[in-house]
Amino acid sequence: MNLAALLRDEEGATLTEYGLLMASFSILSIGGLLAVASAANAVLQSIFSGTTAMQQCPPGTAGC
């Protein structure tokens, strides 16, 4: 089989396309999960700081 015949042969191209599609999907999925994790972390940090402040000065305590 010569080089021209190898270049015209399209067998295996579908596998390559599926591989690229899966790699793209994986990268986008990981990016999305990291964004969601970052947002969830910010919300949880906000809740934690609020509960810490309440422990130091509970509601109904005079002079806080």
What is the tally of beta strands? 0
Summed over residues and divided by their number, the pLDDT gives a mean of 83
- Biggest sheet record: none
- Percent strand equals under 5%
| Tally of DSSP helical segments | 2
- The outline comes out as rod-shaped
The succession of helices and strands, N to C, reads HH
How much helicity do the residues have? over 70%
Helix-strand makeup class: mainly alpha
What is the rounded distance between the termini?
A: 86 Å
Features of this protein?
single chain; 64 residues; mainly alpha; 2 helices; 0% strand; rod-shaped
Structure description:
- By secondary structure, the protein is mostly helical.
- The protein is built from two helices and no strands.
- The protein has helices spanning 3-8, 13-56.
- The mean pLDDT is 83.
